[in-house]
Amino acid sequence: MIKVKKHGVILEKTATSFENEGIFNPAIYQDNNTVHVFYRAVRKGNFSCIGYCKLDGPLKVIEKLKEPLLVPETSEEFKGIEDPRITKIEDTYYLTYTAYDGINVFGAYATSTDLKNFEKKGIITPKFTFEEYAALITKNYDQIKKTHYLFYELFSRYKISELMKGKIYVWDKNLAFFPKKIQGKFAVLHRLHPSIQLLCFKDPNELTHSFWEEYISSLGKHIVLLPKLKHENSHIGAGCPPIETKKGWLIIYHAAQATTSGLIYHACAALLDINNPLKVIGRLKQPLFSPTEEYELKGNVNNVVFPTGTALFNDELYIYYGAADSCVAVASLNLNNLLNKLLKQ
After folding, report:
1. What molecular function does GO assign, one term (predicted)?
2. What number is the average pLDDT over the span 40-55?
3. What's the pTM value of the predicted model, to 2 decimals?
């Protein structure tokens, strides 16, 4: 077992209007002893935007903006921009987020050179209805059909789009850029239910409708991790941006476990090959940590730990996560111990 220390809640909702329902699921960027936190702020009615605060060291809040840093601006973002992750590639920061219009969910990103001013670049995930996606996914081999097709086929069979009187598109979310290009291409983890996939491209303009048709038709070639363990029996998704280590790419991801009392979200870990992230070197057979504390067990959504960012102080890896879709909490562990454990799996 990996020894994990839970440090408790460092951010929670305030009386301020844009964050009076919750503060959780933060993007984290570390600059020496300073930790920049870009968190999902939710106001009553479940409308989300991105707030910002700064930490001195891993836990101490020293600055917090009184206004949102990023707000919804398009129809696809009507209900909010959610669950950010942030990565620096060369001289540019890439902040990904989920665009939510109240029904549909897409993956989008914005860029910055100073962590203060961000330019939205728009949606980069596919835009297919459930019926269109189901037709594409049937071109995959049997294992992918079994794990991916059934979910979408049910939506198609019962014509959910017609019942909702509008188009419902396949959800693609949990985007996280790798912190450097791999073989000259941007590499991004994302999640088409229920697995984690790898998207690679040289230029976002490549991500056309026809690109995604080919990608989804051969989805098996792009899958990094399939849900296969007991605590992953519903689905998994990319969590924190990948961490480059001498042993490989460390990914901290989330897993949803279906139980008779509802879903339980766990924090999990895997190690990927440094040159080929589709190759899994090691994967913990048990969750890294799970909801055990009151602030993780009870909230806007019960039984949730949802990791979205990390910071490294000496050999201690701090994992920042949303707890019960209500607040930001932090856990830490020894990085070397975790890597050694993964290499033995």
Report:
1. glycosyltransferase activity
2. 98
3. 0.95
